[in-house]
Amino acid sequence: MIKVLFVCLGNICRSPSAEAVFNTLIEKNGLGSELQCDSAGTAAYHAGEPADYRMRLFAKKRGYQLTSISRPFNPKVDFDSFDNIIGMDSQNVRDLKTMARNKTDRKKIFLMTDFCFTDKYDSVPDPYYGSDADFGLVLDILEDACAGLIRKLHQS
Question: 146 lies in which domain range?
């Protein structure tokens, strides 16, 4: 079983959306016995809260259910529990690398857009203070990146 953890800042927009998109692809491709995922945030601003209502609304329009509850990234547990820890932007990746305990932890950290089929974006932008279009863009990028990640992990 390969375990993936998606990480953004507050764990209420991007990373729970990545979790939902990835879980949908796992189910669609019959990979439930091979892949598993979760999400977390580098900050505990929204710990215990559901995903942002706007993100849930946009995700629902595309057939995704954001059911996860926000939690902070726990370096003492998460580096040992997950094989791949994927930050949504370069700041998330830097924060994760700062929390890494050793070289083994750092090797597990990736940038979400590294898995995109297109080179159009270098990060998944935070839509929290943005417009409605920003929430749709997040899902566009995540659909592309999650499909690429599924392909990479399934081929491993």
Answer: 2-155
Assign residue 93 the CATH number of its domain. 3.40.50.2300
Residue 14 annotated as catalytic: yes
Work out how many domains the chain is built from and give that number.
1
Is 126 considered catalytic here?
yes
For 88-131, the pLDDT digits (tens) are: 999 999 999 999 999 999 999 999 999 999 878 999 999 999 88
From the list 38, 95, 126, 144, the catalytic residue is: 126
CA distances from 76 to 70, 79, 80, 100, 120 (A): 18, 7, 7, 9, 34
- Catalytic pick among 13, 14, 37, 52: 14
